[in-house]
Amino acid sequence: MTESSISTVSGADPSADTIRDAIASGRTSLGIELGSTRIKACLVGDDASVVLAVGSHEWENEFVDRVWTYSLENVWSGIQSAYADLVEDVRRQYGVQPQGFGAIGVSAMMHGYLVFDENDELLVPFRTWRNTTTGPAAAELTDAFGLNIPLRWSVAHLHQAVLDAEPHIGQVRHITTLAGYVHSKLTDRTVLGIGDASGMFPIDSQTKNYDSGLLARYDDLVAEKAPGLKLAELLPVVLVAGQPAGSLTSAGAALLDPTGVLLPGAVFCPPEGDAGTGMVATCSVAPRTGNVSAGTSIFAMVVLERPLLQVHHELDLVTTPMGDAVAMVHCNNGASELAAWAGLFGRFATAAGTPLATDAVYETLFSEALEGAADAGGLLAYNYLAGEPIAGLSEGRPLVVRSPDSQFTLANFMRAQLYGVFGTLSLGMRVLDSEGVALDEMFAHGGMFRTLGVAQRFLAGALDAQVTVTETASEGGAWGMAILASYVAVAPSGQGLHGYLRDRVFADAAFQTVIPDPGDVAGFASYLDRYEAGLDVERSAVDALSHH
Protein backbone atom coordinates (compact mmCIF):
# COMPACT_ATOMS: atom_id res chain seq x y z
CA MET A 1 0.00 0.00 0.00
CA THR A 2 1.21 3.48 -0.74
CA GLU A 3 1.87 5.04 2.63
CA SER A 4 1.48 8.71 3.37
CA SER A 5 3.83 10.83 5.38
CA ILE A 6 2.91 12.13 8.79
CA SER A 7 1.52 15.64 8.61
CA THR A 8 4.33 18.08 9.28
CA VAL A 9 4.35 21.41 11.04
CA SER A 10 3.56 24.28 8.73
CA GLY A 11 6.34 26.70 7.95
CA ALA A 12 3.91 29.54 8.75
CA ASP A 13 3.30 28.23 12.26
CA PRO A 14 4.05 30.83 14.99
CA SER A 15 6.66 28.50 16.43
CA ALA A 16 8.55 28.30 13.15
CA ASP A 17 11.36 30.53 14.42
CA THR A 18 11.81 28.29 17.46
CA ILE A 19 11.83 25.21 15.23
CA ARG A 20 14.28 26.81 12.83
CA ASP A 21 16.61 27.62 15.71
CA ALA A 22 16.36 24.06 17.09
CA ILE A 23 17.24 22.59 13.69
CA ALA A 24 20.11 25.01 13.09
CA SER A 25 21.59 24.34 16.52
CA GLY A 26 21.15 20.55 16.32
CA ARG A 27 18.58 20.22 19.13
CA THR A 28 16.58 17.62 17.22
CA SER A 29 16.27 13.83 17.01
CA LEU A 30 16.37 11.88 13.76
CA GLY A 31 14.76 8.48 13.27
CA ILE A 32 15.48 6.27 10.24
CA GLU A 33 13.59 3.06 9.53
CA LEU A 34 14.25 0.57 6.75
CA GLY A 35 10.90 -1.04 6.05
CA SER A 36 9.99 -3.66 3.49
CA THR A 37 8.95 -1.19 0.80
CA ARG A 38 10.11 2.20 2.05
CA ILE A 39 13.05 3.69 3.87
CA LYS A 40 11.76 6.57 5.98
CA ALA A 41 13.40 9.41 7.89
CA CYS A 42 11.64 11.48 10.52
CA LEU A 43 12.76 14.56 12.46
CA VAL A 44 11.39 15.70 15.82
CA GLY A 45 12.35 18.49 18.20
CA ASP A 46 12.19 18.93 21.94
CA ASP A 47 8.53 17.93 21.76
CA ALA A 48 8.82 14.47 20.22
CA SER A 49 5.06 14.34 19.62
CA VAL A 50 5.45 16.84 16.78
CA VAL A 51 7.01 15.76 13.51
CA LEU A 52 9.07 18.56 11.99
CA ALA A 53 10.04 16.98 8.68
CA VAL A 54 10.03 13.66 6.85
CA GLY A 55 11.78 11.97 3.97
CA SER A 56 11.38 8.65 2.21
CA HIS A 57 12.71 6.33 -0.48
CA GLU A 58 10.86 3.43 -2.08
CA TRP A 59 12.60 0.10 -2.57
CA GLU A 60 11.76 -3.55 -3.07
CA ASN A 61 13.27 -6.85 -2.05
CA GLU A 62 14.61 -9.15 -4.76
CA PHE A 63 14.10 -12.88 -5.18
CA VAL A 64 17.59 -14.03 -6.23
CA ASP A 65 18.53 -17.72 -6.39
CA ARG A 66 15.35 -18.49 -4.43
CA VAL A 67 16.36 -16.12 -1.64
CA TRP A 68 14.53 -12.92 -0.66
CA THR A 69 17.26 -10.28 -0.33
CA TYR A 70 18.27 -6.62 -0.52
CA SER A 71 21.73 -5.63 -1.71
CA LEU A 72 23.84 -3.59 0.68
CA GLU A 73 24.40 -1.11 -2.14
CA ASN A 74 20.66 -0.48 -2.24
CA VAL A 75 20.62 -0.16 1.56
CA TRP A 76 22.98 2.79 1.43
CA SER A 77 21.64 4.45 -1.70
CA GLY A 78 18.16 4.20 -0.18
CA ILE A 79 19.22 5.66 3.17
CA GLN A 80 21.00 8.52 1.43
CA SER A 81 17.94 9.19 -0.72
CA ALA A 82 15.57 9.22 2.28
CA TYR A 83 17.94 11.49 4.21
CA ALA A 84 18.28 13.88 1.26
CA ASP A 85 14.50 13.95 0.95
CA LEU A 86 14.21 14.90 4.63
CA VAL A 87 16.82 17.64 4.25
CA GLU A 88 14.87 19.05 1.31
CA ASP A 89 11.69 19.00 3.42
CA VAL A 90 13.51 20.95 6.14
CA ARG A 91 14.77 23.49 3.60
CA ARG A 92 11.31 23.89 2.08
CA GLN A 93 9.60 24.46 5.41
CA TYR A 94 12.18 26.34 7.45
CA GLY A 95 14.82 27.68 5.06
CA VAL A 96 17.73 26.00 6.86
CA GLN A 97 19.75 22.83 6.40
CA PRO A 98 20.57 20.60 9.37
CA GLN A 99 24.28 20.21 10.01
CA GLY A 100 23.90 17.98 13.05
CA PHE A 101 21.40 16.34 15.39
CA GLY A 102 21.15 15.87 19.11
CA ALA A 103 20.34 12.17 18.71
CA ILE A 104 19.84 9.61 15.95
CA GLY A 105 18.28 6.15 15.89
CA VAL A 106 18.08 3.43 13.25
CA SER A 107 15.48 0.71 13.00
CA ALA A 108 14.70 -1.88 10.35
CA MET A 109 12.94 -5.10 9.53
CA MET A 110 13.77 -7.64 12.21
CA HIS A 111 15.34 -11.10 11.98
CA GLY A 112 17.11 -12.42 8.90
CA TYR A 113 20.74 -13.26 8.35
CA LEU A 114 23.65 -10.86 7.90
CA VAL A 115 27.00 -12.54 8.60
CA PHE A 116 30.49 -11.07 8.25
CA ASP A 117 34.04 -12.36 8.36
CA GLU A 118 37.03 -11.02 10.30
CA ASN A 119 37.49 -8.28 7.68
CA ASP A 120 33.86 -7.22 8.05
CA GLU A 121 33.04 -8.56 4.58
CA LEU A 122 29.57 -9.95 3.95
CA LEU A 123 29.83 -13.73 3.54
CA VAL A 124 26.48 -14.49 1.84
CA PRO A 125 23.75 -12.20 0.47
CA PHE A 126 21.40 -10.79 3.11
CA ARG A 127 18.67 -13.34 3.85
CA THR A 128 15.59 -11.44 5.00
CA TRP A 129 12.79 -12.37 7.39
CA ARG A 130 10.69 -13.36 4.39
CA ASN A 131 12.65 -16.53 3.66
CA THR A 132 11.04 -19.78 4.84
CA THR A 133 13.85 -22.22 4.07
CA THR A 134 14.85 -22.79 7.70
CA GLY A 135 12.19 -25.33 8.69
CA PRO A 136 14.54 -28.15 9.84
CA ALA A 137 16.65 -25.73 11.88
CA ALA A 138 13.69 -24.01 13.51
CA ALA A 139 12.13 -27.37 14.44
CA GLU A 140 15.37 -28.68 15.96
CA LEU A 141 15.97 -25.50 17.95
CA THR A 142 12.39 -25.36 19.20
CA ASP A 143 12.77 -28.91 20.48
CA ALA A 144 16.20 -28.25 22.00
CA PHE A 145 15.26 -24.95 23.70
CA GLY A 146 11.68 -25.71 24.73
CA LEU A 147 10.75 -22.37 23.17
CA ASN A 148 9.26 -21.57 19.79
CA ILE A 149 12.03 -20.54 17.41
CA PRO A 150 10.39 -19.14 14.25
CA LEU A 151 11.77 -19.74 10.77
CA ARG A 152 12.72 -16.10 10.28
CA TRP A 153 14.84 -15.71 13.45
CA SER A 154 18.55 -15.10 12.94
CA VAL A 155 19.56 -18.17 14.96
CA ALA A 156 17.33 -20.34 12.74
CA HIS A 157 19.12 -19.02 9.64
CA LEU A 158 22.50 -19.62 11.26
CA HIS A 159 21.58 -23.12 12.37
CA GLN A 160 20.19 -24.02 8.94
CA ALA A 161 23.52 -22.99 7.41
CA VAL A 162 25.24 -25.25 9.96
CA LEU A 163 22.91 -28.16 9.14
CA ASP A 164 23.52 -27.62 5.42
CA ALA A 165 27.28 -27.46 6.00
CA GLU A 166 27.53 -24.18 4.12
CA PRO A 167 31.23 -23.42 3.61
CA HIS A 168 31.04 -19.89 5.03
CA ILE A 169 30.18 -21.05 8.57
CA GLY A 170 33.81 -21.43 9.61
CA GLN A 171 34.48 -17.82 8.59
CA VAL A 172 31.63 -16.17 10.53
CA ARG A 173 32.90 -13.65 13.07
CA HIS A 174 29.81 -11.49 13.48
CA ILE A 175 26.08 -11.85 12.93
CA THR A 176 23.57 -9.01 13.12
CA THR A 177 20.29 -7.60 11.83
CA LEU A 178 19.77 -4.92 9.22
CA ALA A 179 19.37 -2.20 11.87
CA GLY A 180 22.48 -3.45 13.68
CA TYR A 181 24.47 -3.42 10.45
CA VAL A 182 23.53 0.16 9.55
CA HIS A 183 24.15 1.32 13.12
CA SER A 184 27.62 -0.25 13.16
CA LYS A 185 28.61 1.53 9.95
CA LEU A 186 27.44 4.90 11.30
CA THR A 187 28.92 4.56 14.81
CA ASP A 188 31.57 1.84 14.62
CA ARG A 189 29.79 0.04 17.49
CA THR A 190 28.40 -3.51 17.30
CA VAL A 191 25.32 -3.27 19.50
CA LEU A 192 21.61 -3.95 19.25
CA GLY A 193 18.48 -2.83 21.04
CA ILE A 194 16.98 -5.60 23.14
CA GLY A 195 13.76 -5.75 21.13
CA ASP A 196 15.64 -6.36 17.88
CA ALA A 197 18.02 -8.75 19.65
CA SER A 198 15.04 -10.79 20.84
CA GLY A 199 14.37 -11.68 17.22
CA MET A 200 17.87 -13.07 16.86
CA PHE A 201 18.09 -15.28 19.96
CA PRO A 202 15.91 -15.78 23.06
CA ILE A 203 16.22 -13.07 25.71
CA ASP A 204 16.14 -13.43 29.49
CA SER A 205 13.88 -10.54 30.58
CA GLN A 206 15.40 -10.66 34.08
CA THR A 207 19.01 -10.13 33.00
CA LYS A 208 18.09 -8.03 29.92
CA ASN A 209 20.46 -10.12 27.85
CA TYR A 210 20.59 -13.26 25.74
CA ASP A 211 19.56 -16.38 27.68
CA SER A 212 22.95 -17.68 28.85
CA GLY A 213 21.69 -21.21 29.44
CA LEU A 214 20.34 -21.47 25.90
CA LEU A 215 23.56 -20.03 24.47
CA ALA A 216 25.51 -22.83 26.14
CA ARG A 217 22.95 -25.38 24.96
CA TYR A 218 23.32 -24.13 21.38
CA ASP A 219 27.11 -24.38 21.46
CA ASP A 220 26.78 -27.97 22.68
CA LEU A 221 24.22 -28.72 19.97
CA VAL A 222 26.57 -27.71 17.14
CA ALA A 223 29.85 -28.84 18.73
CA GLU A 224 30.36 -31.62 16.18
CA LYS A 225 28.97 -29.88 13.10
CA ALA A 226 30.64 -26.50 13.75
CA PRO A 227 33.62 -27.04 16.08
CA GLY A 228 34.68 -23.90 17.90
CA LEU A 229 31.49 -21.97 17.20
CA LYS A 230 30.67 -19.82 20.25
CA LEU A 231 27.44 -18.00 19.54
CA ALA A 232 27.84 -15.43 22.32
CA GLU A 233 30.99 -14.18 20.60
CA LEU A 234 29.13 -13.63 17.32
CA LEU A 235 26.07 -11.76 18.54
CA PRO A 236 25.85 -7.97 19.07
CA VAL A 237 25.97 -6.48 22.57
CA VAL A 238 22.45 -5.95 23.95
CA LEU A 239 21.28 -2.50 25.15
CA VAL A 240 17.91 -1.26 26.39
CA ALA A 241 16.06 1.92 25.43
CA GLY A 242 17.62 5.06 26.88
CA GLN A 243 21.20 3.78 26.92
CA PRO A 244 23.66 5.67 24.70
CA ALA A 245 24.81 3.42 21.85
CA GLY A 246 27.68 5.37 20.33
CA SER A 247 27.95 8.52 18.29
CA LEU A 248 28.05 9.44 14.62
CA THR A 249 31.58 9.08 13.27
CA SER A 250 33.08 11.12 10.46
CA ALA A 251 32.84 8.07 8.18
CA GLY A 252 29.24 7.54 9.28
CA ALA A 253 28.33 11.16 8.56
CA ALA A 254 29.75 10.80 5.05
CA LEU A 255 27.74 7.61 4.52
CA LEU A 256 24.52 9.28 5.61
CA ASP A 257 25.15 12.56 3.80
CA PRO A 258 27.63 12.30 0.90
CA THR A 259 27.35 16.09 0.33
CA GLY A 260 29.58 16.60 3.39
CA VAL A 261 27.27 19.04 5.19
CA LEU A 262 26.40 16.70 8.08
CA LEU A 263 28.85 16.85 10.97
CA PRO A 264 29.77 13.92 13.23
CA GLY A 265 29.03 13.71 16.95
CA ALA A 266 25.30 12.98 17.30
CA VAL A 267 24.48 10.49 20.07
CA PHE A 268 22.80 7.26 18.96
CA CYS A 269 20.18 5.26 20.78
CA PRO A 270 20.23 1.45 20.50
CA PRO A 271 19.17 0.27 17.02
CA GLU A 272 15.76 -1.39 17.11
CA GLY A 273 13.47 -3.58 15.06
CA ASP A 274 10.24 -2.49 13.43
CA ALA A 275 8.24 -4.32 16.11
CA GLY A 276 9.78 -2.15 18.81
CA THR A 277 9.20 1.10 16.94
CA GLY A 278 5.61 0.01 16.36
CA MET A 279 5.11 -0.41 20.10
CA VAL A 280 6.60 3.01 20.76
CA ALA A 281 4.60 4.72 18.01
CA THR A 282 1.37 3.36 19.47
CA CYS A 283 2.19 3.89 23.18
CA SER A 284 1.88 0.17 23.84
CA VAL A 285 4.96 -0.82 25.84
CA ALA A 286 3.23 -1.51 29.17
CA PRO A 287 1.75 -4.87 30.27
CA ARG A 288 -1.80 -5.57 29.03
CA THR A 289 -1.32 -3.29 25.99
CA GLY A 290 -0.83 -4.41 22.43
CA ASN A 291 -0.64 -3.24 18.86
CA VAL A 292 -1.18 -4.47 15.33
CA SER A 293 1.18 -3.30 12.61
CA ALA A 294 0.05 -3.82 9.03
CA GLY A 295 2.38 -3.42 6.09
CA THR A 296 4.14 -5.94 3.84
CA SER A 297 3.83 -8.25 6.82
CA ILE A 298 1.29 -8.00 9.63
CA PHE A 299 1.90 -8.75 13.26
CA ALA A 300 0.33 -8.29 16.67
CA MET A 301 2.32 -7.60 19.82
CA VAL A 302 0.90 -8.07 23.33
CA VAL A 303 2.99 -7.15 26.39
CA LEU A 304 2.70 -10.00 28.89
CA GLU A 305 2.09 -9.96 32.62
CA ARG A 306 3.26 -13.56 33.04
CA PRO A 307 5.03 -16.27 31.03
CA LEU A 308 3.00 -18.34 28.58
CA LEU A 309 1.93 -21.75 29.83
CA GLN A 310 2.87 -23.71 26.70
CA VAL A 311 5.00 -23.53 23.58
CA HIS A 312 2.97 -22.49 20.53
CA HIS A 313 4.38 -22.33 17.02
CA GLU A 314 1.99 -19.46 16.30
CA LEU A 315 3.50 -17.27 19.04
CA ASP A 316 6.99 -15.75 19.25
CA LEU A 317 8.43 -14.50 22.52
CA VAL A 318 10.19 -11.18 21.97
CA THR A 319 10.53 -8.04 24.08
CA THR A 320 9.74 -4.36 24.25
CA PRO A 321 12.64 -1.90 23.79
CA MET A 322 12.95 -2.02 27.61
CA GLY A 323 13.19 -5.82 27.67
CA ASP A 324 9.71 -6.74 28.94
CA ALA A 325 8.32 -10.00 27.54
CA VAL A 326 5.99 -9.78 24.55
CA ALA A 327 3.93 -12.41 22.74
CA MET A 328 4.09 -11.79 19.00
CA VAL A 329 1.85 -13.18 16.28
CA HIS A 330 3.82 -12.60 13.10
CA CYS A 331 2.46 -13.23 9.62
CA ASN A 332 4.73 -12.96 6.61
CA ASN A 333 1.93 -11.68 4.39
CA GLY A 334 0.16 -8.42 5.08
CA ALA A 335 -1.27 -5.77 2.78
CA SER A 336 0.81 -6.36 -0.37
CA GLU A 337 -1.85 -8.38 -2.19
CA LEU A 338 -4.48 -5.80 -1.22
CA ALA A 339 -2.19 -3.14 -2.71
CA ALA A 340 -1.88 -5.16 -5.92
CA TRP A 341 -5.66 -5.23 -6.34
CA ALA A 342 -5.88 -1.51 -5.60
CA GLY A 343 -3.29 -0.95 -8.31
CA LEU A 344 -5.36 -3.01 -10.76
CA PHE A 345 -8.54 -1.02 -10.01
CA GLY A 346 -6.57 2.22 -10.24
CA ARG A 347 -5.33 1.22 -13.67
CA PHE A 348 -8.90 0.39 -14.71
CA ALA A 349 -10.00 3.89 -13.68
CA THR A 350 -7.21 5.39 -15.76
CA ALA A 351 -8.03 3.18 -18.76
CA ALA A 352 -11.68 4.23 -18.45
CA GLY A 353 -10.67 7.88 -18.71
CA THR A 354 -11.28 8.76 -15.06
CA PRO A 355 -7.86 8.51 -13.38
CA LEU A 356 -7.82 8.57 -9.59
CA ALA A 357 -5.03 9.36 -7.16
CA THR A 358 -3.82 6.34 -5.21
CA ASP A 359 -5.40 7.57 -1.98
CA ALA A 360 -8.72 8.06 -3.78
CA VAL A 361 -8.57 4.48 -5.10
CA TYR A 362 -8.14 3.12 -1.60
CA GLU A 363 -10.83 5.33 -0.13
CA THR A 364 -13.29 4.27 -2.84
CA LEU A 365 -12.58 0.56 -2.48
CA PHE A 366 -12.52 0.63 1.33
CA SER A 367 -15.80 2.54 1.44
CA GLU A 368 -17.33 -0.02 -0.90
CA ALA A 369 -16.22 -2.81 1.46
CA LEU A 370 -18.48 -1.34 4.14
CA GLU A 371 -21.44 -2.24 1.93
CA GLY A 372 -20.43 -5.90 1.77
CA ALA A 373 -22.01 -8.76 3.68
CA ALA A 374 -20.65 -9.35 7.16
CA ASP A 375 -19.18 -12.69 6.05
CA ALA A 376 -17.97 -11.28 2.70
CA GLY A 377 -20.77 -13.06 0.86
CA GLY A 378 -19.05 -16.44 0.80
CA LEU A 379 -15.84 -15.15 -0.84
CA LEU A 380 -12.34 -15.98 0.39
CA ALA A 381 -9.10 -14.10 -0.27
CA TYR A 382 -5.66 -15.48 0.52
CA ASN A 383 -2.89 -12.88 0.54
CA TYR A 384 -0.02 -15.39 0.48
CA LEU A 385 2.70 -13.95 -1.73
CA ALA A 386 5.31 -15.69 0.43
CA GLY A 387 5.30 -18.71 2.69
CA GLU A 388 3.26 -18.50 5.88
CA PRO A 389 4.52 -20.57 8.85
CA ILE A 390 1.37 -20.15 10.94
CA ALA A 391 -0.63 -21.71 8.10
CA GLY A 392 2.03 -24.37 7.48
CA LEU A 393 2.95 -23.04 4.03
CA SER A 394 6.52 -22.95 2.75
CA GLU A 395 5.51 -20.80 -0.24
CA GLY A 396 2.55 -18.66 -1.19
CA ARG A 397 0.04 -18.43 -4.02
CA PRO A 398 -2.41 -15.52 -3.80
CA LEU A 399 -5.94 -16.79 -4.36
CA VAL A 400 -9.53 -15.64 -4.55
CA VAL A 401 -11.90 -18.53 -3.93
CA ARG A 402 -15.70 -18.62 -4.22
CA SER A 403 -18.45 -21.12 -4.73
CA PRO A 404 -21.12 -20.81 -7.45
CA ASP A 405 -23.63 -19.46 -4.95
CA SER A 406 -21.29 -16.85 -3.46
CA GLN A 407 -22.42 -13.24 -3.74
CA PHE A 408 -19.72 -11.97 -6.09
CA THR A 409 -19.95 -8.20 -5.79
CA LEU A 410 -17.29 -5.52 -5.54
CA ALA A 411 -18.33 -4.81 -1.96
CA ASN A 412 -17.95 -8.45 -0.93
CA PHE A 413 -14.74 -8.80 -2.91
CA MET A 414 -13.13 -5.85 -1.14
CA ARG A 415 -14.38 -6.98 2.27
CA ALA A 416 -12.89 -10.41 1.59
CA GLN A 417 -9.57 -8.80 0.66
CA LEU A 418 -9.51 -6.77 3.87
CA TYR A 419 -10.56 -9.79 5.92
CA GLY A 420 -7.81 -11.74 4.18
CA VAL A 421 -5.18 -9.37 5.56
CA PHE A 422 -6.37 -10.26 9.08
CA GLY A 423 -7.03 -13.97 8.44
CA THR A 424 -3.75 -15.59 9.50
CA LEU A 425 -3.30 -13.02 12.28
CA SER A 426 -6.65 -14.06 13.74
CA LEU A 427 -5.62 -17.73 13.74
CA GLY A 428 -2.64 -16.78 15.87
CA MET A 429 -4.67 -14.52 18.16
CA ARG A 430 -7.00 -17.44 18.89
CA VAL A 431 -4.01 -19.20 20.44
CA LEU A 432 -3.22 -16.14 22.55
CA ASP A 433 -6.82 -16.12 23.77
CA SER A 434 -6.50 -19.78 24.78
CA GLU A 435 -3.60 -18.78 27.05
CA GLY A 436 -5.87 -16.35 28.90
CA VAL A 437 -3.61 -13.37 28.13
CA ALA A 438 -5.19 -10.16 29.41
CA LEU A 439 -5.40 -7.20 27.03
CA ASP A 440 -6.77 -3.77 27.94
CA GLU A 441 -5.98 -1.85 24.75
CA MET A 442 -5.12 -2.77 21.18
CA PHE A 443 -3.63 -0.06 18.98
CA ALA A 444 -3.26 -0.30 15.21
CA HIS A 445 -0.97 1.43 12.77
CA GLY A 446 0.07 1.11 9.15
CA GLY A 447 -0.98 2.60 5.84
CA MET A 448 -4.22 0.60 5.54
CA PHE A 449 -5.64 2.40 8.60
CA ARG A 450 -5.52 5.78 6.88
CA THR A 451 -9.07 5.46 5.56
CA LEU A 452 -10.84 6.08 8.84
CA GLY A 453 -13.43 3.63 10.09
CA VAL A 454 -12.86 0.76 7.65
CA ALA A 455 -9.79 -1.43 8.30
CA GLN A 456 -9.98 -0.42 11.95
CA ARG A 457 -13.60 -1.55 12.16
CA PHE A 458 -12.88 -4.88 10.44
CA LEU A 459 -9.90 -5.52 12.71
CA ALA A 460 -12.08 -4.87 15.76
CA GLY A 461 -14.53 -7.45 14.42
CA ALA A 462 -11.75 -9.91 13.68
CA LEU A 463 -10.27 -9.64 17.18
CA ASP A 464 -13.59 -9.05 18.97
CA ALA A 465 -11.81 -6.25 20.82
CA GLN A 466 -11.78 -2.47 20.71
CA VAL A 467 -9.12 -1.07 18.40
CA THR A 468 -7.59 2.39 18.71
CA VAL A 469 -5.70 4.40 16.13
CA THR A 470 -4.01 7.76 16.52
CA GLU A 471 -3.62 10.56 14.02
CA THR A 472 -0.16 9.14 13.23
CA ALA A 473 -1.53 5.65 12.51
CA SER A 474 -0.63 5.71 8.82
CA GLU A 475 3.11 5.86 9.49
CA GLY A 476 4.82 5.26 12.79
CA GLY A 477 8.11 3.39 12.47
CA ALA A 478 10.53 6.23 11.70
CA TRP A 479 8.67 8.46 14.15
CA GLY A 480 8.86 5.74 16.80
CA MET A 481 12.61 5.56 16.23
CA ALA A 482 12.94 9.34 16.52
CA ILE A 483 11.11 9.11 19.86
CA LEU A 484 13.54 6.44 21.07
CA ALA A 485 16.42 8.68 20.01
CA SER A 486 14.95 11.60 21.96
CA TYR A 487 14.49 9.34 25.00
CA VAL A 488 18.27 8.99 25.44
CA ALA A 489 18.35 12.54 26.86
CA VAL A 490 15.41 11.81 29.18
CA ALA A 491 16.35 8.39 30.55
CA PRO A 492 19.00 9.66 33.03
CA SER A 493 16.23 11.50 34.90
CA GLY A 494 14.78 8.12 35.83
CA GLN A 495 11.54 8.45 33.86
CA GLY A 496 10.64 5.09 32.32
CA LEU A 497 9.82 4.72 28.65
CA HIS A 498 6.12 4.11 29.27
CA GLY A 499 5.89 7.23 31.44
CA TYR A 500 7.73 9.27 28.83
CA LEU A 501 5.35 8.14 26.11
CA ARG A 502 2.21 8.55 28.21
CA ASP A 503 3.02 11.86 29.87
CA ARG A 504 4.97 13.67 27.18
CA VAL A 505 4.64 12.17 23.70
CA PHE A 506 0.99 11.09 23.76
CA ALA A 507 -0.37 13.46 26.41
CA ASP A 508 -2.32 15.49 23.85
CA ALA A 509 -2.67 12.87 21.13
CA ALA A 510 -5.97 12.39 19.31
CA PHE A 511 -7.25 8.82 19.60
CA GLN A 512 -10.08 7.15 17.72
CA THR A 513 -11.42 3.96 19.27
CA VAL A 514 -13.80 1.53 17.57
CA ILE A 515 -15.82 -0.99 19.57
CA PRO A 516 -16.48 -4.25 17.71
CA ASP A 517 -19.84 -4.50 15.98
CA PRO A 518 -21.58 -7.79 16.89
CA GLY A 519 -22.52 -8.34 13.24
CA ASP A 520 -18.90 -7.93 12.15
CA VAL A 521 -17.74 -10.30 14.89
CA ALA A 522 -20.15 -13.01 13.79
CA GLY A 523 -19.50 -12.40 10.10
CA PHE A 524 -15.73 -12.57 10.47
CA ALA A 525 -15.98 -15.72 12.60
CA SER A 526 -17.90 -17.36 9.75
CA TYR A 527 -15.34 -16.09 7.25
CA LEU A 528 -12.46 -17.42 9.37
CA ASP A 529 -14.01 -20.88 9.62
CA ARG A 530 -14.18 -21.05 5.82
CA TYR A 531 -10.72 -19.50 5.58
CA GLU A 532 -9.20 -22.20 7.79
CA ALA A 533 -11.00 -24.98 5.90
CA GLY A 534 -9.90 -23.50 2.57
CA LEU A 535 -6.21 -23.63 3.46
CA ASP A 536 -6.18 -27.05 1.80
CA VAL A 537 -6.93 -25.26 -1.48
CA GLU A 538 -3.95 -22.97 -0.87
CA ARG A 539 -1.69 -25.93 -0.13
CA SER A 540 -2.81 -27.63 -3.33
CA ALA A 541 -2.04 -24.48 -5.30
CA VAL A 542 1.47 -24.40 -3.85
CA ASP A 543 1.99 -28.04 -4.80
CA ALA A 544 0.52 -27.71 -8.28
CA LEU A 545 1.92 -24.36 -9.40
CA SER A 546 5.68 -23.99 -9.38
CA HIS A 547 7.14 -20.65 -8.30
CA HIS A 548 9.32 -18.93 -10.89
UniProtKB/TrEMBL annotation:
Keywords: Carbohydrate metabolism, Kinase, Transferase, Xylose metabolism. GO terms for molecular function: kinase activity. It holds the Pfam family FGGY_C. Residues 291-487 form the Carbohydrate kinase FGGY C-terminal domain. Residues 30-250 form the Carbohydrate kinase FGGY N-terminal domain. Belongs to the FGGY kinase family. This is Sugar (Pentulose or hexulose) kinase. It comes from Subtercola frigoramans.
